[in-house]
Amino acid sequence: MSRFVVVIPARYASVRLPGKPLRAIAGEPMIQHVHRLAMQSQADEVWIATDDARIEEVARGFGANVCMTSADHHSGTERLAEVCELQSWHDDLAVVNLQGDEPLLPPVLIDECAALLDDENVGMSTLASPMNSAEDFRNPNVAKIITDQNDNALYFSRAPIPYSRDEHTNDLAIQTTLRHHGIYGYRCKVLRQLIAAGPCDMELCEKLEQLRALWLGITVRVGRASVRPGPGVDTEEDIAAVEAALRSA
Questions:
Q1: Can you say whether residue 131 is alpha, beta or left, with left for phi > 0 and alpha for psi between -120 and 50 degrees?
Q2: At residue 112, what are phi and psi to the nearest 5 degrees?
Q3: What is the pLDDT of residues 108-137, one digit of tens each?
Q4: CA R_g for the chain
Q5: Among 30, 68, 168, 234, which one has the highest count of C-beta atoms within 10 angstroms of its own C-beta?
């Protein structure tokens, strides 16, 4: 596996759960759990990227590398791109975006996402698993991916894709799509390209920023996750679920 780094974007102003990175889970701030997982991967470096002094103080307190970034970013991708510039990382360096609200993501998945970038034709990578159920297939909060025969992404959507025109192909449609996991790998030059381009129309419609890469013609390789990640954290109920999972681990 080629050299790669992990960046964990962490902002305080979450709409649904303000202060989310610092919320306590099993006695530790969530960002510390996520950082610990990243440190268990094969990454050469792990960075927390934030715009908030409270997060910076806590992260430095448990020994993390912290990169202070602008408060004006609209996405984790923009924050990662700024880190690339501030650290003067070269164009071909692989960077894995590990979201700061994934305290149960197995470290092996970080390595699997990074390894997909060993193919020089791949500009961006992500992971997915088979769809769990018809309910998830129809759920707009579950992002879906369809791929070509080489495991390159054809499209990401919140809608159930592919659409089943005939009722007897409903099961086939569910088997064809994959459930997207929110972890991404990029080459630094691709991050720079994404930011320079700005949003595209289908990205604005779906509210899925990875569609910008497809619009630009960037090859996005989709790996099959060897294990399913645990639930992320968006609500108070999710915190309780994660604590229960940690107790039973």
A1: beta
A2: -65, -40
A3: 999 999 999 999 999 999 999 999 899 999
A4: 18
A5: 30
Let me know: does 124 contact 192? Beta carbons within 8 Å: no
The three-state DSSP-derived secondary structure of 58-89 is: HHHHCCCEEEECCCCCCCHHHHHHHHHHHCCC
- What's the token pair of residue 94? 């692989």
The pTM is what? 0.93
* Closest among 124, 211, 119, 85 to 159, alpha carbons compared: 211
Q: What is the extent of the structural domain holding 66?
A: 4-248
pLDDT tens digit string along 193-240? 999 999 999 999 999 999 999 999 999 999 999 999 888 888 888 888
The domain total for the chain is 1
What is the rounded average pLDDT of the residues 70-92? 92
Distances (CA, A) of 160 to 113, 147, 163, 202: 24, 14, 6, 16
Which tokens belong to 78?
């923009």
Pull the structure tokens for residue 132: 């769990």
User: Residue 33 is part of a domain; what is its CATH number?
Assistant: 3.90.550.10
